[in-house]
Prior knowledge:
Blueprint lengths: L2 E4 L3 H11 L6 E4 L7 H4 L3 E3 L9 H17 L7 E2 L1 E7 L18 E8 L4 E3 L2 H14 L3 E4 L2 E6 L6 E6 L2 E4 L2 E4 L18 E11 L7 E8 L5 E2 L2 E4 L4 E9 L16 H12 L8 E11 L6 E4 L6 E5 L5 H18 L24
Parallel strand pairs: 1-2, 1-12, 2-8, 5-14, 12-20
Antiparallel strand pairs: 3-7, 4-7, 5-6, 9-10, 10-11, 13-17, 13-18, 14-15, 14-16, 16-17, 19-20
Helix pairs in contact: 1-4, 1-6, 3-6
Amino acid sequence: MRVVICGGGVIGASIAYFLTLRGVRPTVVERCGVACAASGKSGGFLALDWCDGTPLEALARRSFGLHSSLAEDLHADWGYRRLETFGGMLSSGVPQTSRTRMDWVSSCVALNQRLGSADTTAQVDPGRFTAALMRAAQAQGAKLNLGEVTRVVRDGTGERVGGVEIEGEMVEADEVVIAMGPWSQLAKAWMPLPHVDGLKGHSLLFNTGTAVPPQALFLEYRDEDGAETAPEVFPRSDGTTYVCAISSGGPVPADPGVVKPDAGAIERLQSICERISPHLSKTNVIAAQACFRPITRDGLPAIGRVLGLGGALIATGHSVWGILNAPATGEAVAELILDGRARNIDLRPFDPGRFGGAGRRMH
């Protein structure tokens, strides 16, 4: 079977990897590079049960387990480790009373809630994780084609895909998967797809060495002007600490490589970081960045076959849970292609057809 996956982020890499486990050698087409967008600039936080009680519950729980087994099976280091996770408040300068004291945070942080233990929360470096999955897929015969998909080509009947055109060159395919994050919107010119927006998030990466232990923080903060933000802090096993906050909308540029932070957003985030911990100082900044996460109208991913075009599938719209839910999504899409249905996850809540005329249910 000839499968082309459009998108070299964590979803595309996961689909490629799980297809190769079944003997398929897919071609992954990526314009800028593996994990060049949100898959390389997100936090990489994993939670077993934070989606419980929502349609994402089974997908998240399956994925959390797959993250653990992948770390063992592939023998690759992408910073996978279990975490303790805490919630609390950050003040604008007034010392706070905290139920949980940590030597590395400032007195302006009040930690009043334990959100997860090493049994329920974990992390990966998302860029390294995505690259490792892609390398594992390539080792089993998958191909990575760096180029821009300019259209999906239909077969002689006009009712099925026949392949994709990559900058004028035709690549034949029996199945085409659109997994381009918010850039999946570009594929609406080729097939009927649900609307996918991009939510921009800003982040800073710090060199913190051994000063910050594996303790993730989810904080609430209101500055002197009354603006509210929710900074998230993720120390990584390589001695770096990732902090994100400050989301915004706006148009998604055609080229992922030109995404830039909003004016003033990084400076505002740096000011917040300095209140959180002396280890998150400006002198320790390694990277200041922004990325667009894909979101659908109802906040749930779109995973399934596209109505009206045989052999076409979509897998995107995972929002902030893209890194967490990538493995189970990859496994499910591989099963959908090869077995006609996903065996471990019920994909009906994610059917792209729920938006009307853009997909069909697969049981």
